[in-house]
Structures are given as structure tokens and as C-alpha cells.
Amino acid sequence: EPEATPSGPLSTVRAALDLCRDKAESKKVGVYAVPHYSQVALGSAFGPLALPDVLLFCRGLDAALSGLEEGSRLVLTTPRGNREYRSNAAVLLGAYLVARHQWTPWQVESALGGREAKARFARSWSRTSDEPEDKWVLSVRDCWEGVALARDLRVLTPEMLQDDAQVQAACATYEHQVSRYDCTWIVPGMVMVGADPVTVLHDPASGTCSQLLPQAELATASEETSDGAAWEETLVDTVCRDFSSRVPAGSPRSAGSPEDLDYASFLQSLGVGLVLRANLDREKGMPTKSYKDNAFEPFGISHANVRVVDTLGGFPRREDFARIIKVAREFWERRPEGAVFLHCKGGFGRSVLFACCLTVERLDVSGRALLGWARIARPGAFTTRRQELFLAGLKGREDVRRAAGLRPDCGEVEERAATSCAGCAVQ
């Protein structure tokens, strides 16, 4: 944000976020958004930008630098006084250095400065009046740590960011999964998070999935779940999409393509072998009751419920963390290469926290890095400050096991572990 814009024959000046558009097939990039939700619903949240923006910025910057004449330089600018724009630009520039040039987050901070690294982002869905800036948890540096994690897991590679076709393919896959099925990989091939499939089927947006099962299986899809109707009452809703223009499930929406599968076949095609449901069968904001417990069994997909009441955003009890670890561990012992799909009503908050905890426990990675990565991979990821603080406090596998009341060395249940956490409400 210089006092005077550098100019002259040796300088090419670009607005930082415009680089997202250089390689984009759509102009709706470089702006914070949560798919399926209006801008008004996002509250005071302004970033970080989503994974396609990261990919497109990195590819755009790489191409812009490659096209410079010898001896010239590229200057990226941000609007004077616009901290939100600047923070998003700092995340993207750091992501480029980390993913494309193998820098560490510490090296990025040394180059760009501590002020940039310490800048923070409002919680998703937050209102300025109820959460002051000094309470924001996610920092720009956390996002760099998240990109470094994605690089180490080979989600982002230098080779990808040098190739237009690979970037476009990655963006197209991401957009297809988000727009049609409202789900996102946290770790590709291992942990995916999303909304309850039933809420997706009733989304009024054109192109969303409209069928839970193949046509031959639809007759059994709406039978009672084993938990009955006791789960339906006294819920406080935090994030709720608008179904006012809903299209009935099964109605034609678009011409479709071979990749536009019903939800069960979609999960099967990704190698998902276990679905973990964190929401109740019916919650305020759900257009209809959730699917029955054994709906996906004919497709080789097992299912378990770890119900967390959506009160003030929902926070699991200790035994709930222990249960998801146990169920997922048993699944991965049977199918080491299989993937787990976790969902709650909207695919934010409860399910994302569970997904991140499973990732920390299995890969022994930093919770702060996952906080940054989840906010990029799944805009809107967390619904409360408490969820973000909890994840940020996890240094690795042992911390997750302690939080679940398990022995840090082996993950077995501690006999004297507390059975609940103050302030949690779970049935």
C-alpha cells in the first residue's frame, strides 16, 4: 500500500486480487462467498478466499511473472485503507510462495512482515456487534500454515500451479462438488465434509443434486431412522439456507452430465466407505427429515450417528470425540484407503470440527494449520469462536486424544476421563 504507485518502464502494476481473474473461466472470483448462501447471511466475514481463488491467483501470478520483460518488476497493490482486501491479498501471496516456491510460513512472514502475518479474519457468519476484532481467532499466518499442510499432503503442488489445465481441472472438480453436492474434501481421499444430503436435495439452486439414491432404491429412502422422532425438538439454529424457492426432490433441474450422479453413487465414486452424521433427524431449517440410517448400505457405505444439538453452534462432548475416533479407526483398519464423509445439517461447525479432529488424530498435524486450511477449503467452516479456539489449541494427535478422554499414547479410553464438557449440549 505505497504512498506513491511505482511506475515507469521497469514496473508492471496490478491490483492484487485481479490476478485471480487472469486464468478464471468465471468472473465470480476474488470475492469472499459461501456457496448456497446469500452475502447478507455471511455477516461481517470477509475471508479468507476459497481454494479456487488460491489456485487461480497462484497460476495468474506465476504467468504474470513469467511474462515480464528482463529487468522489469511486478508490483501488486491493494486499495488504501482496505484492511479486508489487504488481508486476503496477503493470504494469496503467501500461498503462492509456500505452494509454488516451497517457502515456509516463517520465511513468508520474514519477507512480508509481522503486521501482515498477524492480521486476523472475522469468524464465519459473525456480526460485528457480537464479536469485536480482538476476539477473532484466525490469522493470515494460520492460512499460510494451512497451505503448507496442503502442500505437504500433495493437495497443492508446484507442478499443478504451473499448468493451466491442471488448475482449471482442480477448480472445476471443486466447484462441481460444492455446487452440486455441497461438500468439500478436507484431505482428498480421506476426509470429506458437507451438508446433510437431504438439505442438498431440496436446495432451490439450479444444478444441485436432486436424488439421494438411484431410481430403483428411492422407495426405501424415506423410511424412519432408528432414532425415531425424539431428536426433533428444542433446537437453536445457527446457519440456515433459504428453501423458499425450493424445487421438489426428483424434479429435473438441468440437462446434467455423466458426472451428475445421485448422492449415494457420488459418494461411492469417491471411495467413501463411512458416513458420520452429526445432526439430528430433523432440525429447524431442515426442509424434511434426514435419510434413514441404512440408506447407503447397498453401496458398501456404512453409517454411524454422533448427534450434537445445534445449540449456539453446537460443541461435542468428550465422549462424542472419542466415538468418532473409534468408529473411524475401526473403519480405516478394515479399509485403509477408504474415505470418511462427515456431515451435519449445513456442513459447517459440528461436522467440520469433527473432520478436523479426525485429521489431526490420524495424521498428527497442527490444529492451527487445519483451522487455516478448513477456512480456505470450506468457506463458512466454523460457526462459533469456541470451535475455532478448540481447534487452534490442538498441537497434534495427543491433544485430540486427551480432549476425547483417551490415553495419548495409544488412544484407549481413560477409566477416569470426564464424561462431559461444561457448556455442551448433546443428546
From TrEMBL:
Q: Which residues form the Tyrosine specific protein phosphatases domain?
A: 319-389
The record's listing under Gene3D superfamilies reads: Protein tyrosine phosphatase superfamily
Report the superkingdom from the record.
Eukaryota
SUPFAM superfamilies, sorted: (Phosphotyrosine protein) phosphatases II
Question: Which protein, by its recorded name, is this?
Answer: Tyrosine specific protein phosphatases domain-containing protein
